[in-house]
């Protein structure tokens, strides 16, 4: 078993090596947190193990210099980049869905407004939410929240009335954005 004096000496040696090579480091609970070539690593001199921040697998090195060399040459597993690509694709799909939904409703609103029918429907929506025509977005949101609380089925309201409040709010928000 290694004595406390040897462990302390190992930690001090690592500190000296990091300073000598210009590596930023912090002492955290039982390991050093350090930045090597812009990547973050955890290194434990007592066990000789290290890992990149965000990775689960621990690597082994014999000396602090060995750790630095391995860290500089280390490239994370490929699945990490695939995850970030799949997240990016997922957000792109969500944005596309959102755009198509908004484009559909904007087209509907434009058709209704051009036919004269839109004015009657807008007045109906304003009446449902209890608003008058020159209104701002904060006023619309406030009126929607109040009516939603009154008509929500969980608070004793009617499901059909709640749906009409939601529809009125959605259409009025879209009419503000047009």
Model description:
This protein folds into 2 domains: 4-76, Copper Amine Oxidase, Chain A, domain 1; 86-177, DnaJ domain (Helix Hairpins, Orthogonal Bundle). Helices cover 62% and strands 13% of the residues. It has helices spanning 4-20, 64-73, 78-114, 117-129, 137-151, 159-177, and strands at residues 24-28, 31-36, 39-44, 49-52, 59-60. It has a 5-stranded antiparallel β-sheet with strand order 1-2-3-4-5. It is rod-shaped and about 85 Å long.
> SSE string, helix = H, strand = E?
HEEEEEHHHHH
CATH topology term of the largest domain: Helix Hairpins
Q: What is the straight-line distance between the termini?
A: 75 Å
Give the overall silhouette: rod-shaped
CATH superfamily label of the largest domain: DnaJ domain
Structural domains: how many: 2
- Poorly predicted ranges (pLDDT <50, ≥5 residues)? none
Helix content: 55-70%
Return Rg in Å.
31 Å
Overall pLDDT level: 79
Overall CATH class of the largest domain: Mainly Alpha
Strand content: 5-15%
Q: What count of helical segments does DSSP give?
A: 6
Structural class, from secondary structure content? alpha+beta
CATH architecture of the largest domain: Orthogonal Bundle
Please give the number of β-strands: 5
- Largest sheet, described in full? 5 strands, antiparallel
Major sheet strand order: 1-2-3-4-5
């Amino acid at each position: 078993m290694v004595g406390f004096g040897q462990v302390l000496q190992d930690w001090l040696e690592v500190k000296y090596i990091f300073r000598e090579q210009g590596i930023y480091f912090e002492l955290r609970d039982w390991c050093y947190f350090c930045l090597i070539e812009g990547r973050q690593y955890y290194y434990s001199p007592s066990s000789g193990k290290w890992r990149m921040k965000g990775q689960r697998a621990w690597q082994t090195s014999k000396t602090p210099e060995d750790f630095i060399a391995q860290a500089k040459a280390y490239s994370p597993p490929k699945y990490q980049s695939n995850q970030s690509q799949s997240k990016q694709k997922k957000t792109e799909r969500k944005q596309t869905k959102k755009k198509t939904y908004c484009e559909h409703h904007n087209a509907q609103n434009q058709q209704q407004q051009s036919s004269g029918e839109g004015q009657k429907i807008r007045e109906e929506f304003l009446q449902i939410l209890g608003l008058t025509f020159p209104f701002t977005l904060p006023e619309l949101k406030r009126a929607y929240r109040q009516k939603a609380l009154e008509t929500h089925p969980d608070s004793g309201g009617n499901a059909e009335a709640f749906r009409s409040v939601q529809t009125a709010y959605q259409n009025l928000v879209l009419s503000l954005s047009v």
